[in-house]
Amino acid sequence: MKGMKTAVLLLALALLAGPGASTASAQRKDFTIALDVLSAVTEYDQYSIFDDVTANVKDGVVTLTGKVTTPYKQDEIVKRVKKLKGVTEVRNQITVFPASKFDDDLRIRIRDAIYNHSNFWDYASLAKPPIHIIVEGSHVTLTGIVHSDVDRRLAQSLAMQAGAANVNNNLKTDSEARAELAR
Q1: Burial of 124 from C-beta contacts in 10 A (0-12 / 13-18 / 19+)
Q2: Strand (E) or helix (H) holding 16
Q3: Which of 29, 34, 81, 182 has the lowest CB atom count within 10 Å?
Q4: Domain range spanning residue 52?
Q5: Measured between alpha carbons, how far is 97 from 115 in angstroms, rounded to an integer?
Q6: Which residues pair with 19 in a beta bridge?
Q7: How many domains is the chain built from?
Q8: CATH number for the domain including 115?
Q9: Is residue 61 located within the same domain as residue 9?
Q10: pLDDT at 156
């Protein structure tokens, strides 16, 4: 799916969003590491739509940020990234969501509202659906890639209908992802 390839490239670009490396060779090396980190995180079988981890790579030092639903995911992601070729250090700034039955229920309601809607069936059929639902203290943030602004707005609306009082919509469209890559 073309849009999901763009999503992968956008995420790789985000990994390098920090200050640039000093040489073109170092930038290429960091970009390669960033792609490997992206794969290590997204291919981890326990990484779900309720987790959101990003990374910054500079001179082989990987800084992981974001949130996950359980401590073992944090540990496993760090362990996976440390094993990657070219990684000299991993700075773990991933945090774990506090246990909350209300937040867990809200995550499920929002997931069902979005991915059971006919506009999102194509997304739901992917091995790793691209819309991430981040809930902490009943505050909701949507991250990832969608095909259109209509999908972005619909996902936000569905999240609110599912009980989210406030939704921070950080979803990007395919075209926005391509524009960021072009920069």
Answers
A1: middle
A2: none
A3: 182
A4: 2-96
A5: 22
A6: none
A7: 2
A8: 3.30.1340
A9: yes
A10: 97
Question: Which contacts (CB < 8 Å, 24+ apart) does range 152-155 have?
Answer: 154/117, 154/119, 154/120, 155/114, 155/120, 155/131
- Residue 21 gets which letter from DSSP? P
Mean pLDDT of 122-143: 94
DSSP 76-106: HHHHHHHTSTT--EEEEEEEEPPP-HHHHHH
Helix (H, G, I), strand (E, B) or coil at 18: coil
Q: How many residues does the chain have?
A: 183
Q: Report pLDDT digits (tens) over 69-120.
A: 999 999 999 999 999 999 999 999 999 999 999 999 999 999 999 999 999 9
Is the predicted pLDDT of residue 19 greater than 60, yes or no? no
Residue 118 burial (CB count, 10 A): 6
Q: Are 77 and 44 in contact (CB under 8 A)?
A: yes
pLDDT of 30: 87
Closest CA to 134 of 62, 18, 50, 77: 50
Task: Select from 140, 65, 142, 155 the least CA-distant residue to 103.
Answer: 140
